[in-house]
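Quiz preparation item.
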């Protein structure tokens, strides 16, 4: 027998579906960036194009470019393996992250004295900022300012056009505002007995001004206290400060002394 092909008959071989893999390692901002690793035994890697999308670490700014990103953020790379004579185009995606770089803040003014105004610690400098970002990243704790004497916690935040690429390792710190000292002065502290109550002339100063938030008691020899002694004797003067933002200049609190 003889097999003859009918005239006008054609045979089409359709390109098969190609296969490929794509991976990309994450890295930290400022380190050597990773490269996408594309592999395909069917389509090869001579004609692979990549495109990058994602969001910067500020959580708002989108990224969409054929260029590999350099700012901290969460991204996806899409690689297109070009079709060949025998295999169709293959598209693969891989997720990766550029982690934020850690900085260390140098805190100052963690121990202050009450002055009637709002006070907060200062950040004197940042350790770890890349040279290319110098002057483009700042830190402050202004939102933690307090006025009254007491112990507090401060929270620092980064600002500046490159701040989204960094995080603070020590973004919190404890600080104290200590009571301001009060200086007392006593005059006219003796008087002859005449059966009438007598008191000394007592004045006080704090923060360079007249201070009046205190009470005075006189203590007798038997330990009793009175506001106006009458009987002859020696009476230690006890001053109690009534404003917690102030203290005795020779002590740490407001208690009578």
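Solution:
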């Amino acid at each position: 027998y003889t097999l003859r092909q009918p005239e006008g008959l054609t045979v089409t071989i359709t390109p098969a579906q190609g296969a490929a893999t794509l991976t990309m390692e994450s890295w930290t901002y400022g380190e050597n960036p990773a490269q996408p690793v594309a592999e395909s035994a069917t389509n090869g890697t001579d004609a692979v194009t990549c495109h990058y999308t994602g969001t910067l670490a500020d959580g708002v700014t989108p990224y969409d470019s054929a260029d590999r990103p350099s700012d901290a953020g969460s991204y996806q790379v899409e690689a297109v393996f070009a079709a060949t004579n025998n295999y169709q185009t293959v598209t693969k995606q891989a997720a990766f992250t550029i982690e934020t770089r850690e900085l260390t803040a140098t805190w100052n003014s963690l121990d202050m004295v009450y002055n009637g105004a709002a006070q907060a610690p200062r950040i004197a400098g940042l350790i770890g900022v890349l040279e290319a970002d110098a002057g483009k990243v700042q830190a402050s704790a202004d939102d933690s300012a307090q006025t009254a004497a007491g112990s507090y916690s401060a929270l620092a935040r980064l600002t500046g056009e490159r701040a989204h690429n960094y995080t603070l390792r020590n973004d919190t710190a404890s600080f104290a505002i200590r009571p301001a000292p009060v200086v007392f002065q006593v005059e006219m502290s003796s008087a002859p007995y005449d059966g009438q109550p007598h008191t000394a002339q007592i004045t006080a100063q704090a923060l360079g001004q007249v201070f009046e938030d205190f009470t005075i008691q006189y203590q007798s020899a038997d330990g009793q206290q009175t506001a106006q002694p009458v009987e002859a004797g020696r009476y230690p003067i006890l001053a109690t400060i009534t404003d917690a933002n102030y203290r005795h200049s020779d002590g740490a609190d407001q208690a009578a002394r």
